[in-house]
Structures are given as C-alpha cells and as structure tokens.
Amino acid sequence: MQSGERFLELWMMKECGHLNTLVRIQLDYRVAPQCPALNPFGFHPMAIHPADIPCFLMLEVQKTRDNNKMASDSSNCSDHGCLPPELITDILFQLPVKSLGRFKSVCKSWNSLISTHNFAKSHVQFQISSTSNNPSALTSVLLISPHPGFVLSCDLKLLNGHSFDAAIDAGLISPLKLGFPLPSSTTFPPLGSCCGLVCIVETMSMTANSKTLCVFNPTTKEFRYIPFPNTEDYWPARHWASGLGFVPSFDDYKIVLLKQTVTFIANDRVYHNTADVFSLRDGQWKVLDSSNSNLDASLGGAYLHTRSPAVWSNEALYWVVPSFPVGPLGSFFILEFNLAKERFSRAANVEHIRDADDRIMYDLQNLSIGVIAQKHVCVGQIYSMQSGEQFLEMWMMKKFGELNRLFILQLGSDITRRNLRLLGFTPNGLVWLVSAAPGRQEILLLDPSQNRPAYVLFAEKYVHHVMSYTPSLLSPS
Questions:
Q1: Is 175 domain-assigned?
Q2: Nearest partner of 380 among 329, 443, 334, judged by Cα
Q3: H or E element, residue 64
Q4: Does one domain contain both 169 and 34?
Q5: Tens of pLDDT along 184-218?
Q6: 60 pLDDT exceeds 60?
Q7: Whole-prediction pTM value?
Q8: Is the peptide bond before 236 cis (omega within 30 degrees of 0)?
Q9: Angle, nearest 10°, between helix axes 85-93 and 53-66?
Q10: Which domain holds residue 376?
C-alpha cells in the first residue's frame, strides 16, 4: 500500500476455473521487512522458506485471535479461517522438533496432530529426506565418552571450530542424563541408530537379570530399558555385531545382536554363529536358527569382526565385514539382514587384486559403513602406505550384488594426523574422522568433494564414538 502497509494474500484453485481467496494478512511492522515477495519461495510442498514458516504460522494464528475468530477452547484452527488442514500438516513437517514442541501449545487440534504416532513417523521421514538431498544440511550429532561417562547431543553448527568441553563447562550444552554408567572401554559401542532412536549398552558389569540395553530418543529424552538376551553368552564373546532398524510394513523397531564364538577341533576352526532379534512392538527376544536364517552361509567362514553398528535402509540392516581369514587382506563384504523376512544374505563383495610390490597397511578399525541419500549403502576404508601417505577409498552399492568404487582420495596434509580413524558418514555424504593428538582429540567432518574438513570439533575428554542421527518425536515405548 502507499501507506507502507504490506499484506500477504493466498488463493487456492480447488476446481478448474475457480480461484478462491484463502486468507489476507496484514504483515506486522516487525515482520514485513523480513518478508518481501512470496515468489522466490513458492508454495506446496515447501509453502514458504523453512526459516520463515514459524513466523508465518504464528502470524496466521495471531490474526484469527485478534479478529475474535478463534473459539475460546481453541479446538480447531481449520474451522476459523486458517489454512487448510492438509497444508498446515505439510508445513509442520518442515519444522524442527523443538519448534513442534512450542507449536503444540497453539491449539488443541495442533497438539493432537503433532502428538500422533503417524505424524511423528511422517515427520522424521521428511527430515531424513530433506537432510539427505541437501549437501549443506547436517544432522545432529551424538558424542559418547566413557571418561567420565556421558552422552552429548548437539547441533554441529553450534560447535564448529570450538571445544565442546568448554561449551559444557559454560552451560551452553549439557550432557544427557541417562541414569546409568556408560562402558569404560570401547568393547561395546552404540548398538545402532534409526529414525531418531539410539540403542546403547548400559554397563560392562552385566548379570543375567540386569537391564543392560537402553533405547532412547536424545531429543525427547524418552528411555526404554531392555534386558540383554543370554547375557552370559555375549560377555565375553569372541566376535559380535549389532544393529537397530525400523520395519515400516510392521510398524516395528527391531534390535539385532549377532554373536560368533570360535573353537578349535583338531587344529580346525569351528564357528558357532547365533542371532537374537528383539521386537520393540512385541517386547520379546527370539533366537534365529543360523541355518534357516542363512547366517552361516552368508558369513562363509569369515570372522564376524566389525567395529561399527549396522546401518538401516529399506527395511534391512547392513554390516561391513572383513573377509579374513578366508579372503585376501583388505577384502570385505556387506552382510544384509532383511528385517521383515528375518533372513541374512551377502549383498556385495570387494576383492582387492594388487601387485606384490604394493606396500599397503590396512587397519580393520578404519573400515566403516553408512547410508547416503537415504537409500545408497556406502563403504569407506582408510589405508596407509609405508611412505606415510593416507588414502580414503569409498564404494557405493546402487543395486543388490554390485558395489562400485566412487573414488580414491589422498588425504591432504591438513587432515592427516597420527592415529587417524574412520568413524562413519552423514546422510549427505560427509565423512566422520577422529584424530588423536597428545592431550586432545580432533573430530573432523570431511567433505570429500573439497578434500578438507567441513567441521572440526576439539575435545579434551576422550570420545569413543560419534554418531549422526535425525531428531524426531518417535517414542521408544
């Protein structure tokens, strides 16, 4: 308007030839300078740029309140001149979890919508998809340290280039209070992470009746304790692996624990492989027969030696397993577990063929697996040459049975440190590395396209594990 007032007007075409006015809002003077033309942002499915969504929705609610169009019980926003319910739902999907917590207090209909299990499932899937398709997006990070024992959940952008120890001391971020001691060594890493839920082991001093597993949501602080199956069989176990995955077709989470013991009979190795599966929906463990589940055939005599938990994609869990001792040094395969069918298989193999003069030193701790763009299983490996050069090699499985090399990257001098260790990947393809130096630790987030650290965290306290996760409203109960 010539007076300087600015208005936002929306129309919707519900049928051909008819364009109906949805709403006309006079923008508040504090908001108008931040909301220029609507054209650059577009509409559904994004509606408005995500950074402006909370402001837009609150303006809408404030307008109806000022005009006395909202009932005293605030029972249903859609009946009082607000946006259509389906458009409100699409906009709410784009908000972070903390904003959704505040928006639950706007009215009863929003509170009911946001509190439903179906909304929580759809919201986290939208967030995972948005993060995976945006190279600049970052999920939250979970840092686990057994000395003195804490789990820290934070946004990477808050800590870039800073020490998170100093941030804790200053009260800027606080460790999660889990109510139990964490392990005092790296024997038990996090068992897995999926759709905002994380599973870890409670304590090293396990007894048969102790509740030793904890599934928790770092965002909502909800916990669920689960007894460890046949504890005496898993501690101490020769080799074991774990994973946490979601089964959309059953609307259920499953925890999978694999154990392998080795005995020697007449100088021959005899492997005993077992798999335990826990259903969060049913609340029960069950033991899978290693023959019927195809576990023995899938491992094929290889050591079940994997340092990282399984990753989840398309109703399946995936582990990266070195082929030793039956395969060449440096070779590995991907072990798949179909969560719906509860059956194992070898998804892909990589066999290194090198000249005898190659002098490559492999470290099993520097083999890791991740999921990029929500659907592509990737494997990364760091190896060193005797000359001191270090390389990062990555493969991607685009379809079952085929693992294609993406690149071999010689790490730059600003990345290579002594005791460099590969931790994993973020959903948008960044690589987690940790570098130990005397008296301090550097946690690096590497952008392979630029061969330089994208984010660097400094830690005085020792950190054993770093895990990316997507904040969600899903409950472990």
A1: yes
A2: 334
A3: helix 53-66
A4: no
A5: 444 456 788 888 898 887 654 444 455 578 888 88
A6: no
A7: 0.75
A8: yes
A9: 140
A10: 140-469
